[in-house]
Amino acid sequence: MRVYKVTFYWVLFIVLCVGCRKDAFDNFYNRPENLESPIYTRLEEEGRFSLFRRLIEKASYKETLDQAGYWTIFAPNDEAVNRFLTQEGYGTVEQVPEEVAAQIVRYALVYNAFQTNHIADYQSNLGWVEGLGFRRRTAYYEGFQKQKVRINGVEQELIVTASNRNNVSVTFGTPYYIDGDNNNKYVTYFHQKYASMNNLTAADYSFFHPNVTWADFNFMGAKVLKADIIAENGVIHEVDAVTLPQPSLDRYLAEHDDYSFFRDSILNQFFVTYAPNAAASKTYEYRTGEVAQVYVKVYDPLLTFSLNNENYLKEEDNDGQQDAFTLFIPKNDVLIPWVRTILLEHYKTLNNVPKTVLADFVNTLLWRNAVWPSQFSLKFNVHEEPATFVQQDIVDKKMLSNGFFYGTSKVQESNLFSTVYKHIILDPDYSLMLMLLNKEYKRIITNPNQQFTVFLFSDRLLQQLGYAYNERINEWSWRDRNNNVIGHAITEPRLQRILYTHIVETPNDELANIENSSGYIQTGDKIIPGEFIKWQNGNMYAAGNEFLGQSVHITGSAKFGNNGRIYYVDNLLEFSAETAGQAVNRVANANTQTSRFRDYLVNSTLYRAADLTINGIAAGSSYTILMPNNAAIQQAVDAGVLPSNTAPTDLVDRTKVERFLQHHILTNINVAPDGNQDVISGISLLKDASDQSVIVGIANAVNNLRFTDASGKTVSAVNNTNLYISNRIVLHELNGYLN
User: Fold this and answer.
1) At 69, which CATH number?
2) FAS1 domain: which residues (predicted)?
């Protein structure tokens, strides 16, 4: 009996202990009494969302929103839902199809909970960035769809899904589709904090939604009436309108035939493919139970971005919160005549236009930024051009799921198709010159703020002169005048140097009358000056042409762009390969007034007779050689600056000669009497007692070039319209000498 009593008391003790522990467990883990209800219940408690709650139920999202989670929902109140029912012709919520209910609910539902203290911030990988957020990823995505598409002229019905990345490079394997990424759509909102920190105003929002008043916090085309309704599993923002999922830029184009020429004749024809994808096909089978081939709609990597990608750049997971894409697409009645007049000037059909040129055109219409209406001049496309529109040019505007869409009444005024560059990019006879330009100097001649004259050399001319380009291996070669074959490593830099000699900055249209006048001018632009060329009554010479005795002639009439003119030529403006010693000898033979300077040089320690070079002058660099004439040399002899013997043996006299010559060679500069006021001094080869380079002053007026030495003595270049030019060297006869 005693054993039973002991057992009873032990059982009672254990029950009491367990009960106490359970009470402690419940007290610790039970839902706190002050915790808000989940979203679905919270909507019920607010009392203004009975119709939206019914849509949630129809969309099968009640359980999701009445349990744990982390959401933001932009909830339309009963008045907003009633207005939607009337507009869409539904008598009651019950008449709304489940599919439509799901669209409304999932597009209003944003991942993660965002109160207004962070709704305008960007959720970066490193933390919050203030004032950069204006979009958020929703629970809605389109997934797989059956679509009729035209491939090689044949219409087919395919199961299609959109690419969810920008196909930047097929070559390096950059994926255009990541399986498991549903390409969720984004919503756009406009908060006061974002607006003020990005210099935007209510006008930027109302341009898209002219019938909606901005209330410091708007969601798509709705006002946020009450923000920050806190729930256990997220945040509710009450809005005054129902929002259906917005299409992507790709789908909007597909649905609007006002842009059918751009869409069908350019975009789909040349830059869209449908790629079968095994991973997408497997996912489709898993979701539907059907076995079928799924195709991914892929945009060509030549384009700035993929118009059907909802993920923005995906360089960071959430970068779609802070930016989006923008399109400026001209309507058919604007684009068709522009294409006929501009793109097809030298081509019969668009099929004949190089794909790279078409890609350049399409990219003039694409921005990898959200371009708000007040920012047309502030945001730039891949060609570094702003949008050349005023708001009156915009005839259609939409805030879409992956960016802004503007339909336009004119075509973007791209520098590619309005400057002198257009005569090269749009003419198949100049494809090789175009290739060279695009590698080095395209940016220069597409600058609408500078005026240029460009001499165009054709593919045929290059071929006649022995140049060839192998597309298969992407290499140049040249068969020179001695029938030697020169490889790519030498040929391409040679052609780039020749090309730059064919580009001349002419702010005052200095070459307008080149066929009936004479003169000289420095090629290139002021930032990177090129070599001098000369002309006389239609005969043009660079240093190489003069050396070879072959002039260049203009053929046909000049053509114009908004930043200058172009001439067609029958030969290349060639550079010279002669050495500095050869150049001095050639000039002295042509102008005997400079022969004594030459004699001192060739007998000096600076001169290397074996290769006809001058110590201190590096091949390929720029120099100006000042050659005092015979009378000036005699003055220097009389003053004891030079010995009378042009080949002295005495060390002191040889040093005098060397220093005299060095003083008259200016480094890293080509100067001529062209009135260039930017050049005010030159550095000579001569060093002073402190081993510092001696500076020579320069005063440059048209036909009046003067040089000043350290003592203030000034001497002039003898006016000679037949400027002496060589291998990046300019030579002048002087009427005095520098001491």
Assistant:
1) 2.30.180.10
2) 36-243, 581-738
